[in-house]
Design brief:
This protein is of the alpha/beta class. The protein contains five helices and ten strands. It has helices at residues 33-45, 53-61, 97-110, 139-156, 170-179, and strands at residues 2-3, 16-17, 66-73, 80-87, 116-120, 123-132, 166-168, 187-190, 195-197, 201-210. The strands form four sheets. Strands 3-4-5 form a three-stranded mixed β-sheet, with helices on one face. Strands 8-6-10 form a three-stranded mixed β-sheet, with helices on one face. A two-stranded antiparallel ribbon has the order 1-2. α4 packs across α5 (170-179).
């Protein structure tokens, strides 16, 4: 149950309301200048085209709280469009049911082409990493490695789908480890090769083991 902070505002509304099992969507903080700048630059690079996949991505990113979005064809069947997105303040950015409903409504209101539309959360796929022979093995170095890998995933990772699988390169992980402050030398044991994701799966950092 939620209550209004100021009962004098909106006097026609009930003082209390019960939230359904799906929860409350949205509720994001005010968009930052950096986020707004990124959206404007993206619109300049990819101007609206009357229903292109980039249009769906920009429509989704215009919803407060959405920090990244991807649109792909053939989400459910030929002629359908699928949109996956990340939401601010959620664990690993994975949106909740209320967030999905919010973005679905926003896209339904703005899209120009009446193709089938599917809006979904990426399926988090835990990424476990094993590192051996870390030359400077300190708490600070380990923390820097974790932060560097997480930042790499933010830059590079996306959901993988049948029409556009996502392959996480093992070399990206090793590079992120090498870029961490304090790291001098290491040997990456796991993963032993590239990892390909489909079915809406997206890698999220799980545990890093040191041997």
């Amino acid at each position: 149950t939620v209550e209004r902070a100021d009962p004098t505002q909106f006097p026609n509304l009930e003082l209390e309301a019960t939230v359904a099992s799906g929860g409350i969507g949205g509720g994001a903080d005010t968009e930052t200048d950096a986020s707004l700048r990124a959206r404007i630059l993206d619109r300049k690079r990819r101007p609206p085209q009357g229903g292109a996949y980039s249009d769906y991505e920009q429509f989704a990113r215009a919803v407060p709280g959405v920090i990244q979005a991807w649109a792909f064809p053939f989400a459910d069947a030929p002629g359908t469009v699928g949109v996956w997105f990340l939401f601010e303040g959620r664990e690993n950015g994975i949106p909740e049911a209320g967030d999905i409903a919010l973005v679905q409504d926003a896209l339904e209101a703005r899209r120009l082409i009446r193709a089938g539309l599917s809006v979904a959360a990426p399926v988090p796929a835990p990424l476990t990493i094993t590192i051996a022979s870390l030359a400077v093995d300190t708490v600070q170095t380990r923390a820097a490695i974790s932060a560097s890998i997480a930042a790499m995933l933010v830059r590079r990772a996306r959901p993988g789908v049948a029409s556009a699988p996502f392959t996480l390169s093992r070399s990206w992980i090793s590079e992120a480890i090498s870029l961490a402050v304090g790291e001098d030398r290491h040997f990456l044991i796991d993963p032993s090769g590239d990892i390909t994701y489909v079915g809406g799966e997206m890698p999220v950092l799980d545990t890093i083991s040191y041997v």
